[in-house]
Amino acid sequence: MKKFTYICFAGLFIYLLQPKGGTVFYLGEVRWLYIFLLSFSGTVLFTPVFYALGKKFNMFDYPSERKIHKYPIPVTGGLAVAAAYFVTLLRNLNFSREVYGVLVGGAIIFLSGLIDDLKPIPAGAKLVIQLIATTVLVVFGIRVKVFPNSWVLKDILDITVTYIGVVGITNAFNYMDGMDGEAPGLGLISSVTLFIIAMANGMRNISWLAIGLAGSCAGFLPYNFPRAKIFLGDNGATIIGFLLASIAIAVSWGAHNTPVAIATPLLIFSIYIFDMVYTTISRIKNGTVKNLKQWLKVTGKDHLHHRLVNLGFTKAESVIFIWVCAAVFSFSAYTIRNAGTINALLIFTQTIFIYFLIVTLMLAGREITYDG
User: End-to-end distance of the chain based on CA atoms, in angstroms?
Assistant: First the structure.
């Protein structure tokens, strides 16, 4: 980023951070824009700082046979994203029980990811930490609420699905951090979708959580795409995934029936879920994964972005393809909220057809390399 542009964003961040920096936005009833600009400019400001610290403390992602970059790159980008996001939430000075839950749970995930980038944590320990962070969400009232009140096991089912959803999306998103710009771009698309739906449902506090995350992801993109100067690292990818899952669960979907309420977040996150499920099935079929420990540990060049490159896509084209898919499914998620039964079925059918096409691409671009 050019020096003059950087100075401009630094000045914007400092201005917005001061006591009256958000007044004009509050009066204009566009607090969301203030939050977006603050988190965006904060990430732009912090990223070069943490890039330098990453180099100083030797926090690099080194090239290997399972990596596609050819030289060491700092993995401290998540520090910039998290710092800007948490500063923005604290400066917003508008808290609810859910916001506190996201802050505490997010801090746990972020710190564990940071430690993992410094010295790898065993896969089992990471899973336990993610379960603890999810427990924080449940304690603060963030949990799935889609099962009928008449069901005897409603609370147990709601909490169980909450754990599966948060841990699953956190890891699925982390798996999508495989090419330059892929993860922050997906984070931007998903968080904007969650923001729009939360605003439509009148959930302002939750919408601010979403738009703040969108600003942080957008602010990181110039440093990570089309050619990465810095990576998110596990600390960044896991916290973005955790925050997306947390916000999605906190949103009242306003759907007219339970299936649509469940389908909405599934569509928003479907590209992450598909990639994780497909690679898991493929690895089990090939005998590479035989138990949970191996599933948590094994890595390989068999993800969607790898298969697209094998087909002749450039890395940037592969990422843009995945972004477009995520955007299409996000449009479907918003549309399905108010769809009638027939229209909902048409949307589901469209989604299935698109994934049939993606499976075809995955099979055509098969070139599996494992390291685990």
Answer: 37
* Of 89, 69, 78, nearest in space to 50 by CA: 78
Q: Are 208 and 251 in contact (CB under 8 A)?
A: no
Between the CA of residue 30 and those of 24, 38, 48, 360, what are the distances in Å? 9, 13, 29, 44
Q: What is the pLDDT of residues 77-128, one digit of tens each?
A: 999 999 999 999 999 877 788 889 999 999 999 999 889 888 888 888 999 9
Q: How far apart are CA 324 and CA 17, in angstroms?
A: 34
C-alpha 328/C-alpha 323 separation (Å) is: 9
Tens digits of residue pLDDT in 172-217 = 999 899 899 999 999 999 999 999 999 988 888 899 999 999 999 9
The residue-averaged pLDDT of 262-283 equals: 90
The residue-averaged pLDDT of 7-34 equals 93
| Burial of residue 266, with CB atoms counted within 10 A of its CB: 0-12 exposed, 13-18 middle, 19 or more buried | middle
Could you tell me the pLDDT band of residue 253, with boundaries at 50, 70 and 90? Answer: low
Alpha carbon 282 to its chain centroid, in Å, reads 24
Please check whether residue 360 is in contact with residue 289, taking contact to mean a CB–CB distance below 8 angstroms. no
CA 233/CA 189 separation, integer angstroms: 20
H runs (alpha helix) in 93-153: 97-118, 123-139
Task: Say how far apart CA 219 and CA 7 lie, in whole Å.
Answer: 14
- Are the CB atoms for 243 and 294 separated by under 8 Å? no
For 148-171, the pLDDT digits (tens) are 778 888 889 989 999 999 999 999
